[in-house]
Amino acid sequence: MTPRDILTEKSPYGAVRVFGEDSSLSQPALAEHSVNALEEAGGLDGSIIVVALPTGSGWVDPDQVEALEQWAGRDIATVSMRYSHAPSAAVFLLNPQMAKNSAHELLRTVVERVEDLPEGHRPKIIVHGQSLGAMAGAAAISAQNEVESIAVSLWQGMPGGDRGIDDGAWCSISVVNSDDPVAHLTPALLGDPVNLWNTLSALPGAASSESGSGHSYAPVFPPAHCVSSSA
How far apart are CA 231 and CA 228, in angstroms? Predict the structure, then answer.
C-alpha cells in the first residue's frame, strides 16, 4: 500500500496543511516557497504552527497530523517539505546531513516569519519529527539562535534511541518504543556488518507493527502548559 501524503490532503478539521516539494529548488529556496504558501493559506493567523520534519522518503505520520488537528481544530497549521525519496535508513547511514540541512532551513524560515509578526499575534511553534525526522529536528533546534521561539518539540522513534539529547527547547518530549529496531540504528553499525544486517533486516516489518510498538507510534501531544497563552 502506498503511504499517504497526508499534507497534500484537505484537512477534515479545517486546519492548514502545506507540503513543499520541488526538486528544482535549493533547500533554502524550497523552505521560503513552503512558508510563503503557509502564509498565503492563513497558517500564520492561528495559534499553533507545527513544523513536521519527514522521514527520508518525505513521509509524515498521518495519525500524528490528524490527532493534533483534532486536538487544536482550525487553530493549527502544519508545514513540511521533501528533501529525498530514499528510505530513512539509507539517508541516515549515507547522507544524514541532507536531512539536517532541510530541517534547519525550514525551521529557520518559520521562526523568522513568526518573529516578524507583532507580539501577541505570534503562533506557538511545535516541532515534530519521527524517525530520521526526529534526529534532523533535534539538530535543527540546536542550530537555532532563537530557540525561545519554539514552544515544544515532539520526537518519536529517535534513531539510536533517546540519548538524552538537549535540543534547546524548554519543553521537549521524546518517545522510543522498547522494541523499535530504529533505536539501535547508529552510524557505528557501518563498522559492524553483522549487527548492521540484523538491524536493517528488522526495519521493513517494524513500521507495520501495532501502534505503540516497533517503529509504529501512537500520537503524542504537547502538555497544555507548553502551548498555553501564558507560557
Answer: 5
Q: What is the SS3 assignment for the chain?
A: CCCCCHHHCCCCCCCEEEEECCCCCCHHHHHHHHHHHHHHCCCCCCCEEEEEECCCCCCCCHHHHHHHHHHHCCCEEEEEECCCCCCHHHHHHHCHHHHHHHHHHHHHHHHHHHHCCCCCCCCEEEEEEECHHHHHHHHHHHHCCCHHHEEEEEEECCCCCCCCCCCCCCCEEEECCCCCHHHHCCHHHHHCHHHHHHHHHHHHHHCCCCCCECCECCCCCCCHHHHCCCC
Hey, how many other C-beta atoms are within 10 angstroms of the C-beta on 21? 17
Q: Express each pLDDT in 5-45 by its tens digit.
A: 899 999 999 999 999 998 889 989 999 999 999 999 999 99
Look up the pTM and report it: 0.85
| Amino acid 99: pLDDT | 83
Give the chain's length.
231
Q: Could you tell me how far CA 106 lies from the centroid of its own chain? A: 10
